[in-house]
Amino acid sequence: MDAPEDWPRFAVTVDLVVLTVRDGALHVLLVRRGEDPWRGAWALPGGFVRPVEDLHEAAARELAEETGVHQAAGHLEQLGSYGAPDRDPRMRVVSVAHLVLAPDLPEPTAGTDAAAAAWVPVDRVAGDELAFDHARILADGVERARAKLEYSPLAAAFCAERFTVAELRAVYEAVWGRALDPRNFHRKVTSAPGLLVDTGERRTEGRGRPAAVYRRGPATTIAPPLSRD
Amino acid sequence: MDAPEDWPRFAVTVDLVVLTVRDGALHVLLVRRGEDPWRGAWALPGGFVRPVEDLHEAAARELAEETGVHQAAGHLEQLGSYGAPDRDPRMRVVSVAHLVLAPDLPEPTAGTDAAAAAWVPVDRVAGDELAFDHARILADGVERARAKLEYSPLAAAFCAERFTVAELRAVYEAVWGRALDPRNFHRKVTSAPGLLVDTGERRTEGRGRPAAVYRRGPATTIAPPLSRD
DNA sequence: GCGTCTTATCGTCGGTGTGACGAGAAAACA
DNA sequence: TGTTTTCTCGTCACACCGACGATAAGACGC
């Protein structure tokens, strides 16, 4: 099977698990499907990969097009591919899922394809109300995010460019669903080499002593890792 | 773009990074291409996904067909997808790469498609002698394997069903390319709950005191992780 | 202005895991 | 029988961790 007519034809899509932290809870960006199948159901944003673009490009493009989110501020990585033969009743589709971690954003803008888009707390998404196999993709994405916070500086992708230790801690608490000791957390992240860069700036957030404002440092891993036990 | 004629058609393949430990070194299974493009170059084994099979099934099938390796003994997981528009000059191909960790096997059996197959030490694979983007896929697979040994019981996938602590340590040393202290390694793996099950059996390997023989335990993670520093 | 509250930041302390390494156990080999 | 080799168990100093006390520095109510 080597002639161009011989290989099975697939449609290839990218689906996006876009996560953010709002009001102390992890949220995922969902769109409501306007077409069959699964018309009216919530789904992950996504779309077809174009004939001439890389998978990563396609994901970034769909992210901007369909959700108005620009990758620059956050983090985009490939999550995995899903290609069960019957996952889409119309045709054979392989979806390359991507994970996006974004700072809290004003409001989801419904894109061209989607009837509506909304941030939904991940623990309020019932598995059976998502289209296709998106419940599994979402679960894999959330688990990936939870695991990566342990040993990577990725939590900062949920924050604005300048942030305080408390804001960073709030991200961990939201993603892990668990309260962390502010003193130990402060010690760990400030002592991890290259993780945070002190801007010298201070910021007072309502009550309490003003907090130092940091930027992301050059570190690519957190050693030793934080523990989510 | 919703009619079946509208979406771009892709070929979807699975490529396999099959790793094993031989003679104290990490080896990868390569096949020599018998057809253009890249005729005569080494490549990762792989092939087209069939119209009705899941990606994981396709990887397991290609593994058995093309290399004679049966997954049962080892470990098979998805590594990631590669879909640069120009990665195959013939057509638009998205490859879903999989990572296989297998015990040392007698000899690679050249499969139907491949002119030849061979175990090659990974540190002797020159990047520019691999077909397509397989050098990058291989690098990603090796890095995934190295990282996973830290916190998962996956090293046992490189061993036979029953193995000694020294054999397990040899796997770590081969994959990480670094000598480990036998005493500290022994302490860590035997004290990690659920990692090893003592079979009661002993085995004497040439000289030295006979070693206890273990099977894999039910643990899915190693806590605390081993460190490869 | 002055206490009070709240949050940020720094320190302390006991427990635990770690790497470096010593020492004994149990085999093969000369 | 001694030597060598490898496996296995201990020891010890050190780093780190979680729990938590103490202090710093702002806002707030009066």
Automatic annotation (TrEMBL), chains A, B:
Alphabetical list of SUPFAM superfamilies matching this protein: Nudix (SSF55811), Winged helix' DNA-binding domain (SSF46785)
Signal sequence annotation: none
Domain of life: Bacteria
InterPro entries recorded: NUDIX_hydrolase-like_dom_sf, NUDIX_hydrolase_CS, NUDIX_hydrolase_dom, WH-like_DNA-bd_sf, WH_DNA-bd_sf, WHD_NrtR
Keywords: Hydrolase
A GO term for molecular function: hydrolase activity
Residue ranges constituting the Nudix hydrolase domain according to the UniProt record: 7-144
Protein name as catalogued: NUDIX hydrolase
